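Last lecture ended with a question: if I hand you only a sequence, what can you say about the shape of the protein? Today we answer it with a concrete record. The protein is Polypeptide N-acetylgalactosaminyltransferase. Below, first the input exactly as provided, then the predicted structure, then a couple of comments.
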Amino acid sequence: MRRIRANAIAILTVAWILGTFYYLWQDNKPHASPSAAKAGAGRVEIHREDRTIPLIVTHVPHVEIEGQLVGSFDEKAYLSGKQLKPGDDPYRDHAFNLQESDRLGSERAIRDTRHYRCASISFDHDLPPTSIIITFHNEARSTLLRTIKSVLMRSPPSLIQEIILVDDFSSDPEDCQLLTQIPKVRCLRNGRREGLIRSRVRGANAASASILTFLDSHCEVNADWLQPMIQRVKEDHTRVVSPIIDVISLDNFAYLAASADLRGGFDWSLHFKWEQIPIEQKMARNDPTQPIRTPVIAGGIFVMDKNWFNHLGQYDTHMDIWGGENFELSFRVWMCGGSLEILPCSRVGHVFRKRHPYDFPEGNALTYIKNTRRAAEVWMDEYKQYYYAARPSAQGKAFGSIADRLALRRKLNCNSFRWYLENVYPELRIPEQETVYTLLRQGGLCLETHGTESLALAECKGSGLNRPQSQKWTLVEPQIRQQDLCLAITAFTQGAKVKMEPCNIKEARQKWKPKGPALQHIVSGLCLDSQPSSGPVVVMQCHPQLASQSWEPQPIT
Ligand code: LR7
Ligand code: MN
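The predicted structure:
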């Protein structure tokens, strides 16, 4: 009888232990929850955890007594120096709910969103310290201060060499200046608006630590966010690492866990997006603490060795204000011998917004085009044609000289964009791959350009992909292209010459369509014609059966 009771107790105990483990495991599994919400203008998919009792509460292990942490800094005075006036729209100046941010205070506890296994990972005792670089333009005082205090509270003090604020010509210099009363905080103020790219370079040049950590000015770092990143960079200085970026609600400032199996991706218009890691990689991941390789980083929050940052050419400082620099840096890192990864055991919250709360002196769209065009022109080789096809408005827009960046690419002896696509981002679908380059053949001859002004039939040269550029065409209806140049008629009349000019999707003179074997100019209805042979190529009344109007587009393989 006693034996039976002892057995029953043993069985119950085992069941209880197993049950507890199952519960813990469930809680930390990423949920494919139907309530997955879109946040930040569709930029991130998050999985809401509805539990109210967090299993691991963010302790504040490194916090010292208040005075030591912030020194002589008078937080109340700083925050009350700028306050929302009754009746003001709390979203107006920052595109998030300022009232809610101000109400929160600078030191709130947040849920530890890591997988529970992260808490037991250990790090080297001699990790090198880092310089934190935060650039900002008219950031709200409460979000900026919370960013700084979260860093001081949740990082081992020995790892924080300094926090460099780069004030990108905000209206009030005191937003930055007053914060230098906090120990370790330095403030550099730009004498004019530079944009985040040049501001970060300024911050990096001023940094005294050997490792750089970049943060946006409205973040909250989570428990032990820094050690995993510094550890990875210490082990291999060519790694550029980012945390999982959690979501801070722009409405109520709730801190929400982001999904742990996303990586950075993009489409051909160079629009950043979060995407699921490929299924084979997902299946092979049996350890949720392992780094995730990512084709691109979101851009704002990453850790990089300072010598490696300098060696690779910092940033393209001809990019203005905002945008595109994350692609340029990501392509450069991968193609020139480094790697990019997201570390699931490092978590940083960020306030995702739906609009920019600041102005772009040259306009938002033009600036994005200029910056991404620079990235495409320098790094994407022949694949830049897909960027132009996906973003036709980029054609013909000014982007300045890229000579320095091309020289840098040569000096660093970087891989091709084709290598990047094959080895880093094979999942990026290449549009109409097989029919990309074509010859425009007539009999045994090929249509060839001589500069932009003249076109003629000439002997077909080279073979395969080694054909000369002057004979390689891409047919992206309605355009007939050679890189950024498009075939255009010079007048809407019979016998008008054709020439090459910068592509512009709105330009009627550049629009063509096939008509049997002929190529017809849409508006005039005239057809591309090689008569008189050896003379200039013109447009004539369509007679597709004529040999001089018969062009057989022939894919080059
Ligand atoms: O003129 C400016 N000067 C600045 O110093 C404009 C902006 N900034 C500062 C700004 O105050 C902020 O601290 O630059 C930082 C980034 O600007 P945001 O917060 O308006 O941009 P974002 O969060 O929408 O932008 C993401 O993409 C940018 C592309 O240029 C940058 O790489 C941002 O750092 C990047 N943010 C992140 O990666 C955080 C995660 C978001 C995502 C996805
Ligand atoms: Mn941001």
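Comments.
1. Confidence is low (pLDDT under 50) at residues 21-63.
2. The first strand starts at residue 37 and ends at 39.
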